[in-house]
Design a protein that fits this description.
Spore Coat Polysaccharide Biosynthesis Protein SpsA, Chain A; single chain; 13 helices; alpha/beta; 16% strand; seven-stranded mixed sheet
């Protein structure tokens, strides 16, 4: 039963990725759309991100870049791309007003959304690590066009790192569970998120952005409050080639889970799943250790076989989902086949470790009261009481984490 409960949502996601298609994009009428990109620090793929965002096959859109500081490392990349492409549909806004009750990125979203031209019908949030393709924007907003009751839609990410070390592989395995949970429980993902302008400019969302930690998860509540629906969009899963270390991942993961704990109504099932699944695994391992010591060979073999079956099933499903996602999007995003025979074997042995890493991340998220995000410390007194302790221009870390924190 536990195997079915764990694996059925993954199988559903595999089928969803295989069956998802976008047709008649050329024949569809696409409304004016504003794409908001908030920059602080130089992401590894920022130049590629900008060039692809500026090369969208979309009739009427504007890329609005919120730059944290004139001397931010991202400024040099922006200047280089502007000189090379000379875009006419991009605006760069250097942010000078510093918030004290929310994160910098949320303040940027609110400030830009509030001033948007009335002609824009859709508003899109995108991250600096997004490597898109020419029809990405059309694919992203399509659910909003097809369903007038859809207030917001987003995809997710799938990691295809250049370096298959322990950190990157642990993150990739963990992300399978994250992708499935976010799709199942309707968690918006700000890395590729489209909403109606009426949602983005609503008093409710502007107030939430100016008092919260993250810009995507709370939008779900606003969409529901406005009587609209949110839809997970499997057609815009972005392949992410960034590398990381195990230490960096273990610092980054709890903050991702913290967003759900603070702002999503379905945090409860996520917490219960993490605790129960880990306890079941621990109890099974302890019981089988006792069986081994006491010489209960039949019980040892039966329980051990069940654990190995679960292990193999989870491993096979990871490979299947990876194959489905990469086959669907590799050509569009120029991402190589990252999983070699050696790294596949590493994934197999990392599967049990990821379960305990996930449990650590969830428990850590429950107790987090202060985070450092891109060099800024934030105190979390309550979900809508976030204090920015001191603003400082971004300074690249001395150690190479290769991670978008």
């Amino acid at each position: 039963m536990g195997l079915v409960i764990q694996c059925l949502p993954i199988i559903t996601m595999i089928r969803l990725c295989k069956s998802s298609t976008v047709e008649n994009l050329a024949e569809q009428s696409f409304p004016p759309t504003a794409v908001i990109l908030s920059l602080r620090g130089g992401d590894p793929f920022l130049s590629e991100c900008l060039k692809r965002l500026l090369s969208q096959d979309y009739p009427d859109y504007q890329l609005i870049v919120a730059l944290d500081h004139p001397n931010d490392p991202a400024a040099a990349v922006l200047d280089q791309v502007i000189e090379e492409i000379q875009p006419t549909h991009m605006i760069v806004k250097v942010m000078t007003d510093r918030p004290t009750r929310c994160t910098l990125v949320n303040h940027n979203y609110a400030a830009i959304a509030e001033e948007l031209d009335a002609r824009f019908e859709f508003v899109v949030l995108v991250d600096a690590d997004a490597v898109t393709w020419p029809t990405w924007l059309k694919c992203l907003v399509r659910p909003l066009i097809d369903d007038s009751n859809c207030g917001g839609t987003s995809g997710n990410r799938w990691y295809t790192p250049d370096q298959c070390n322990t950190g990157t592989l642990t993150r990739a395995i963990w992300n399978m569970g994250s992708l499935v949970q976010m799709g199942t429980f309707n968690y918006p993902w700000g890395g590729s998120f489209a909403m109606r302008a009426a949602v983005a400019k609503s008093d409710s969302l502007l107030a939430i952005w100016r008092s919260t930690l993250t810009g995507d998860t709370p939008v779900y509540g606003v969409i529901k409050e406005l009587g609209l629906t949110y839809k997970f969009n499997p057609n815009v899963i972005l392949l992410n080639r960034e590398n990381t270390t195990l230490k960096s991942f273990m610092q980054w993961m709890p903050r991702q889970l913290l967003n759900g704990r603070l702002y999503h109504p379905h945090w409860g099932p996520v917490l219960v799943h993490a605790v129960v699944s880990t306890l079941i695994l621990l109890i099974a391992l302890c019981t089988n250790t006792v069986n081994l010591v006491r010489g209960n060979w039949w019980e040892f073999s039966a329980l051990g076989g069940s654990l190995i079956l679960f292990w193999i099933a989870f491993y096979v499903l990871f490979l299947k989902l990876n194959a489905s996602v990469c086959k669907r999007f590799r050509a569009e995003q120029d991402s190589p086949n990252w999983l070699s025979t050696k790294s596949s074997i590493q994934v197999f042995f990392l599967v049990p470790f990821v379960q305990f890493a996930y449990f650590y991340g969830v428990i850590r998220a429950v107790f987090i009261s202060k985070i450092n995000w891109r060099g800024i410390d934030y105190e979390i007194d309550s979900p809508h009481n976030i204090r920015l302790l001191e603003y400082k221009p971004f300074v690249p870390p001395t150690d190479d984490k290769s991670e978008s924190l």
